[in-house]
Design brief:
single chain, 474 residues, alpha+beta, seven-stranded antiparallel beta sheet, six-stranded antiparallel beta sheet, 25% strand
């Protein structure tokens, strides 16, 4: 299982740690909507509450009341290959030789199956299908005596991308992988307690009235305890490779990555997309919500009207009864509905952030035509997604990626569009560089393996994946 596009949060030194962690996870909800959890400590033991669903569905006043303490970590989860279920819901909390430890993880360990097979040969028993549990076992098996040393000892054996937040009864430890693929930042609460907070994105700091200080550097181990905060860099360095999809899609538009807002980067992506792939059209519309800033930039560059030709429902629940045949394209219709008065008789440019399999884009094009659009020109504010991600993004196998099996002309025919234009890799890199300094440092500090096939971290292909056995319900 990938930890994927999850959100992690941690706080140390505040009497309402659980409440603030709840708020932090709420602000990170866009990074994962399937499950959430919080672990707290008052200095002696760990307290845990986890559940499937959105943050506000998992936690209520009674649940928060059972999580006392001055320190906490939280996780909001977006599951991928390992499937759902409470047993895969984080943070994981466990007891080992040095006491209690909890961990929340965003990312993916690329050699987890190889390490898992080795641990199982030694008698380790796994309770989940999560690669994070492999890291837990490595920590428990480490001969080191200090918790930070055990964490580092375990991380020296793993490959992949990770932002990790650990909690023990007396300290909080945050770690960012040596390539900086996944973001992790530090802030301080504007209160007399001067508590430290860490999170996947700084947007949650605004909600809890904390000040953003900085992003952790690639490979940094950041520890907070009663003595204060300190950093170390015990992990071998790598070329910085921040996931470029943080700019394209993952991060909230109001987040800061590097020196500029994600919103401004996405508008610049749209401007450059218009330069590379202009279209003779009457109006520009986004696929909401992820396509909005890029569509604004495209419309500005082309000097075309920007319209909301698709309206998104913000009240789609986690489960619903889907008719089998009675309503075609039900899933897309549940989330998006066209505005006929805007579209009727018009030549439209529809802007989205990416195309994966192409099935959703095909349904959107048909929806626009059914609503009266005369022409539909599809524009994508990222390059063709031709390679799967092994660092924590839910992408299918390469054969399922439409851009790896179809030319642009073939994709146009499949989508039933009038034209299709992807932003080039050069255009994407130039847009990011023009607006911001990448937070991982260095002008070339981005991972674009899903576009290029150039993987910055080794990918370990196990001889045979571990068997998925039936598990007891928890």
């Amino acid at each position: 299982m990938l930890a994927a596009m999850c959100g992690v949060f941690g706080i140390y030194g505040h009497p309402e740690a659980a409440n603030l962690t709840y708020l932090g996870l709420h602000a990170l909800q866009h990074r994962g909507q399937e499950a959430a959890g919080i672990v707290t400590t008052e200095g002696r033991v760990l307290y845990s509450h986890r559940g499937e669903g959105l943050v506000h569905e998992v936690f209520n006043e009674a649940a928060i009341g059972r999580l006392p303490g001055h320190a906490a970590i939280g996780h909001t989860r977006y599951s991928t290959a390992g499937g759902g279920g409470l047993r895969n819901t984080q943070p994981f909390a466990f007891e080992y030789a040095l006491g209690a430890l909890a961990v929340a993880h965003n990312g993916n360990l690329t050699n987890a199956q190889e390490l898992r097979a080795e641990l199982e040969q030694k008698g380790a028993i796994f309770q989940s299908s999560s690669d994070t549990e492999t890291l837990v076992h490595l920590i428990a098996h480490s001969p080191q005596r200090k918790v930070e040393d055990r964490i580092v000892d375990a991380l020296l054996r793993v490959e992949g991308a990770y932002s990790l937040v650990f909690l023990t009864p007396d300290r909080l430890v945050a770690v960012r992988d040596p390539a900086g693929v996944r973001p992790l930042c530090v802030g301080r609460l504007r209160t007399p307690e001067q508590a430290y907070v860490v999170a996947s994105e700084p947007t949650c700091f605004d909600l809890i009235n904390a000040s953003f200080e900085r992003y952790l550097a690639p490979g940094e181990v950041f520890t907070v305890d009663a003595r204060g905060a300190r950093s170390s860099f015990p992990l071998p360095g790598r070329r910085p490779a921040l996931c470029v999809f943080e700019y394209v899609y993952f991060a909230r538009p109001d987040s800061m990555l590097g020196s500029a807002s994600v919103y401004e980067v996405r508008k610049e992506l749209g401007r450059r997309l218009a330069v590379e792939h202009p279209a003779e059209a009457d109006l520009v519309l986004p696929v909401p919500d992820s396509g909005v800033p890029a569509a604004l930039g495209y419309a500005e560059q082309m000097k075309l009207p920007f319209e909301l030709g698709l309206i998104r429902s913000h009240y789609v629940g986690r489960t619903f009864i889907e008719p089998r045949q009675s309503i075609r394209h039900f899933g897309v219709r549940l989330k998006l509905n066209p505005v006929g008065d805007v579209l009727r008789g018009k030549r439209v440019v529809v802007v989205d952030d990416s195309i994966v399999r192409g099935t959703t884009s095909r349904k959107i094009v048909k929806m626009l035509r059914d609503a009266g659009a005369r022409e539909v020109h599809v524009r994508i504010s990222s390059p063709p997604t031709q390679w799967p991600c092994f660092y924590g993004i839910d992408t299918p196998t390469r054969g399922e990626l439409i851009a790896s099996t179809h030319t642009v002309a073939e994709t146009v025919r499949y989508l039933t569009a009038d034209s299709l234009g992807y932003l080039s890799r050069e255009g994407l890199s130039q847009a990011v560089s023009a607006v911001s300094t990448p937070l991982s440092g260095g002008g070339a500090g981005l991972c674009d393996a899903c576009f290029s096939g150039n993987y910055p971290i080794p990918i370990v292909e196990p001889a045979a994946p571990h068997r998925q056995l039936p598990l007891l319900q928890v």
